[in-house]
Amino acid sequence: MAGFNQTVILDVVRRADSGLTRAQLARRTGLSAQTVTNATRRLLEQGLVREEGESSRPGPGRPGTLLHLDPSGRYAIGVHLDPAVMTFVILDLAGTPVAQSQMPTPVPEQPDQVVAGIVGAIEDLIASAEIDRSLLLGVGIATPGPIDVDRGVVLDPPHLPGWHGVPLRDDVASGTHLPVMLDKDTIAAASAHLWNPGVHRSAEFAFFYLGTGVALSLVIRDEVVRGVSGNAGESGHFVVDPTGPDCECGKRGCLGAVLRAEILVQQGLAAGVPLEVGDMTDPRDINLAFSALCAAADAGDVGAISVLETAGRRLGMASTVITDLCDLDTVIIGGPLWSRMERHAMPGLAKLVSEHHVPSGAHSIAVLGSPLGSQVGAVGAGCLVLSQAFTPRPSDLMLLA
Ligand SMILES: [Zn+2]
C-alpha cells in the first residue's frame, strides 16, 4: 500500500487517538523532519491521512497541523466461513464495519457451491455499500482449521465434510479479482480484539471461540500465537467433565464434545425443552435448533437455562487451566454460538473463574464476552488484511534504498 517510512508513520497515526503533528511524528518514529514531511505528503496524496485541527500543546514555535487517519481512505473485506453460516463485513481503515451481511452456508459439503456463494456475496456487499473497488485492499477469509496458511488451502476440517485440500484463497481470488488472505477462524477472531481500540483487552489474553467447534487462541505480548503451521488453538479435547458425553477421540466430556451445539440441543431435549429439530447431521439445522434452545432459555425455560449454565461452568474450568498456565488476567469469549448463549452461560462461567484461586495471587481474572458478537470472525479476517497493510516490511525498505 505504501513504502516503509509511510507505513511506519501511518501505523503511528492510527494508534494516536487525537491526531499528531509532523513534529510529534518525527519524535515518535525517530525519522527526520524532512522524511516525515515527504512521507506525509504522499500519504495525503493517497488519501490515507487527512489534516484537521491544530496542536494546542504549549511550546516554542507555531502550533502544528494535526494529521489523522482517514478511515474512508481504504477498505478491507472480511469473510467468516462457518459450516452453518457465512458472515461478510467491509471494514474501513480504522477497522469499523461499514457494511455487513450474513447467509446460511450453501450446501456446506460442496466446496464449489460455497466458493460461488462467497464470491457472489462479496460482490453484492461491495455494490450495496457503493465502495470504489480501487479502494479495496483485499479480502480476508476466516475458516475452520486445519489449513495450510502458506498455500491458502483448507485441508480437511472435521466440521466441513467433503472438504479435502480446497484452494479457497486462490478460488476466491480468481472469482473476485481481489488479493485474498486465508487464516484459521480462531486466530482471525483473536486478531479482531487486537485491532479494535474500542474493545477492552489486556496485552495477554485467552480467547475462546465458540462456533461449530470450540477453539482457543492465546495472545501474548500483543501477538496471536500461531504455532509452527498456523494451526494453534485446538482445545476441543480438554476434558472438563469425565462423566460427560462420549467424544470422537475416545475420551468422555472433552470441551469440544460438551460445547457442541448438537450436544447442547440433545441435553435440552432430555431436559424436556420443547424444541423442533430437523436433520441433526446438517450444520444449518443444528444451528436453527440451537437458536431455539437459546430462545427457550430467554423465555424462561428452566431446562434450557440449566443446560446453558452448565456449559458456562465447563468453559470456566477450561479457562482457569489456561490462565494458570500462562499467567493471564483476561479471558474473552466470542463466536456465533456464544452471542446467543452468553446471557445464560456467563454468570456460571464468571463465578467459577472469580472463585478460582490464582496461584500467583498477584491479580484477578476478568472474563468478558466479545462485543463483536457473531461478526467476530469476519471482523477479524478483515483486520488481518488491514494489519498486513499497516505492517512495515523490510522488503519495502530494500525497494526504496
Ligand atoms: Zn475428545
Number of strands: 14
Task: Report the uncertain regions.
Answer: none
CATH homologous superfamily descriptor of the largest domain: ATPase, nucleotide binding domain
CATH class of the largest domain: Alpha Beta
Strand order of the largest sheet: 5-4-3-6-9
**Mean pLDDT value:** 89
Which kinds of small molecule does this entry bind, naming each only once? zinc ion
End-to-end span in angstroms? Answer: 17 Å
Quick one: biggest sheet? Answer: 5 strands, mixed
As a whole number of angstroms, the C-alpha radius of gyration is: 23 Å
**By helix and strand content, what is the structural category?**
alpha/beta
Order of helices and strands: HHHEEEEEHEEEHEHEEEHHHHEHEHH
Number of domain modules: 3
CATH topology of the largest domain: Nucleotidyltransferase, domain 5
The outline comes out as globular
Question: Short description, anyone?
Answer:
The protein is α/β, with parallel strands linked by helices. Helix content is 42%, strand content 19%. The chain has helices at 4-15, 22-29, 33-45, 111-129, 168-176, 185-195, 255-258, 261-270, 283-298, 302-326, 336-355, 376-390, 394-400, and strands at 49-54, 65-69, 75-81, 85-92, 97-104, 136-143, 147-148, 153-154, 180-184, 205-210, 214-220, 223-224, 330-334, 366-369.
Descriptive account of the structure:
With 401 residues, the protein is an alpha/beta fold. It is built from 13 helices and 14 strands. It has helices spanning 4-15, 22-29, 33-45, 111-129, 168-176, 185-195, 255-258, 261-270, 283-298, 302-326, 336-355, 376-390, 394-400, and strands at residues 49-54, 65-69, 75-81, 85-92, 97-104, 136-143, 147-148, 153-154, 180-184, 205-210, 214-220, 223-224, 330-334, 366-369. The protein has a five-stranded mixed β-sheet with strand order 5-4-3-6-9. It has a five-stranded mixed β-sheet with strand order 12-11-10-13-14, sandwiched between helices. A hairpin with a 3-residue loop joins strand 3 (75-81) and strand 4 (85-92). Helix 8 packs across helix 9. The mean pLDDT is 89. The chain binds zinc ion (ZN).
